[in-house]
UniProtKB/TrEMBL annotation:
Organism: Porphyromonas cangingivalis
Phylogenetic placement of the source organism: Bacteria, Pseudomonadati, Bacteroidota, Bacteroidia, Bacteroidales
UniProt-recorded name of the protein: Ribonuclease 3
Record's keyword annotation contains Calcium: no
Its job: Digests double-stranded RNA. Involved in the processing of primary rRNA transcript to yield the immediate precursors to the large and small rRNAs (23S and 16S). Processes some mRNAs, and tRNAs when they are encoded in the rRNA operon. Processes pre-crRNA and tracrRNA of type II CRISPR loci if present in the organism.
Assigned keywords, A-Z: Cytoplasm, Endonuclease, Hydrolase, Magnesium, Metal-binding, mRNA processing, Nuclease, RNA-binding, rRNA processing, rRNA-binding, tRNA processing
Length: 266
């Protein structure tokens, strides 16, 4: 009788438990192949990348945290290299800020959602994906798995295709994360300084296509204090405002010259 029960248990596990695992592996393999555009011979890496530590049965090593650490480094390296090449006139501080905005959890969460990584994620049913950075962390783990499976060049191509996409996308992320134009307008209103965002023109750049240029004029003499360029008129305004704020911080005497607000001592 014990033998029959044992045999029956093995049969049931092979029919049901095994088929579920096989089906899950098939779905994961198909998902990864569609995402990468090529098959993988190391499905275990991707299974681990999609395993959150809250998943029942996940061990200390069999979860995606180590891959997340690795993927974070790969993404930062790729983004940093690209920013260095694309923004030749920006200093270290500006490049660091832009990289931080691109690799921010809010941006990675958005990208992970668009890639439907939640459909493959193995996690506790009580985990609230909408109020956590789990998907962004999973994206980093996925990049780590791609790096180990396919090498740096392939991982770099994936990051460029899905996280960076284009200079236009990077500028949109930057504008979304930090609204320099609003900050500049508030400053001008506080100091009662007349100002204008003046659209100059659009030029065709061989690398980035149509590039719009704008400048900021202040005071009754319409002094130009900054110019910005971008792939849209809105982004050119943002970049002009960013440069204007940087200039006024470095040279506060310009602000004092045009300010109409009297000090309390007068």
């Amino acid at each position: 009788m014990h033998f029959l029960k044992s045999s029956l248990g093995q049969i049931l596990r092979s029919l049901f438990g095994g088929s579920r695992k096989g089906g899950a592996d098939h779905d994961l393999h198909r998902f990864v192949q569609q995402l990468l555009g090529c098959p993988t011979q190391n499905l275990d890496l991707y299974r681990r990348a999609f395993t959150h530590r809250s998943y029942p049965g996940a061990s200390r090593r069999m979860n995606n945290e180590r891959l997340e650490f690795l993927g974070d480094s790969v993404i930062s390296c790729v983004v940093g290299h690209l920013l260095y090449d694309m923004y030749e006139n920006d200093d270290e501080g500006a490049l660091t800020t832009l990289r931080a905005q691109i690799v921010s959890r809010s941006n990675l969460n958005t990208i992970a959602t668009k890639l439907h990584l939640d459909t493959m994620l193995r996690a506790s049913g009580s985990l609230n994906l909408k109020h956590s950075d789990t998907l962004g962390n999973t994206l980093e783990a996925l990049v780590g798995a791609i790096f180990l499976d396919k090498g740096f060049d392939f991982a770099q191509m994936f990051v460029r295709s899905h996280i960076i996409v284009s200079k236009k996308n990077m500028e949109r992320v930057s504008a979304k994360e930090e609204d320099y134009k609003t900050e500049f307008i508030i400053l001008m209103q506080q100091q009662k300084i007349d100002f204008e965002f003046n659209y100059i023109d659009a030029v065709n750049d061989p690398s980035f296509g149509l590039v719009h240029r704008s400048e900021i004029l202040i005071g009754s003499d319409r002094r130009a204090i900054a110019m910005g360029a971008g792939t849209t008129k809105k982004i050119s305004h943002q970049n002009a405002a960013k440069d204007a704020l940087r200039l006024l911080k470095k040279h506060p005497e310009i602000l004092k010259k045009y300010a109409k607000v009297k000090s309390r001592g007068n």
